[in-house]
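Hmm, how's this folded?
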Amino acid sequence: MKSTRLIFSTQSYAYLQKSVCAAGGFESGEVEVKTFPDTERYQRVLTSVDHRHVALIGGTITDADTLELYDLATGLVQNGAQTLTLVIPYFGYSTMERPVKSGEVVTAKARARLLSSLPAAIEGNRVMLLDLHSEGLPYYFEGHMRPVHLYAKTVVTTIARKMCGSDFVLACTDAGRAKWVQSLANDLQVPASFVFKRRVDGSHTEVSAVSAQVAGKPVIIYDDMIRTGSSLLNAARAYRDAGAKSVAAIATHGIFPADSLAKMKQSGLLTQIVVTDSHPRALALQSDFLKVETIAPLLAEALKP
């Protein structure tokens, strides 16, 4: 019986499967996938998983990807996997972790319960999650699904050093991320800053103050994810107005729906954005303005026996 971990992926994460296998010396598992004219998906596990330690890399980036992940994971267990590790680099709906208005569906919890309902491998299941938007999300997983929250701190600090050396201010878009940014700043031995906001109306906020001296200094804004970038641009404008020499951004997850990245570039407020390859959208959009660093070594290390 082979002891090397066997790595599978959903279609959207084939790039990460290849990188993780190379980084960890793992064996790559093959799956045949076809889509019928009525859009139903056919999957067949081609590599034997009987009594093997198996990992499946896949995101919940769309509803279709979530079901592909669930269906393939079920097949791996049914075909005899000794252990099953779901690796979810980006957990979708992570901002829907609690109801704000009466009747709202807590989709993050619903998805965690769905994945928790997977049949158990011989020695059990676990799920690896990366830089979650809310620290409480792992507690939504139930039963025999054991959650593991990975932090990309080493990746983020390395990126920051590459960008600005040791003379910069590490900042965040609002006070909600201040604790995490303060921790990163301590590791980097640089000052930390955040912006104060006040709500103008039900859907708009404005920056009222900046917490640290940034005049004449490069500023790097960190956030766990960048979606449309509205909060990022508001913060970048505040730091610019406070005299920052330049403003760049780092995020673990780059989502960038529609033309949001183009708008960020056209704003002229940011010199560069760097994200990881936790979301396939970032890879598709990478350019001189958007740089992408891989999380493959981090995942490979976490998957080692």
Notes: The radius of gyration is 21 Å.
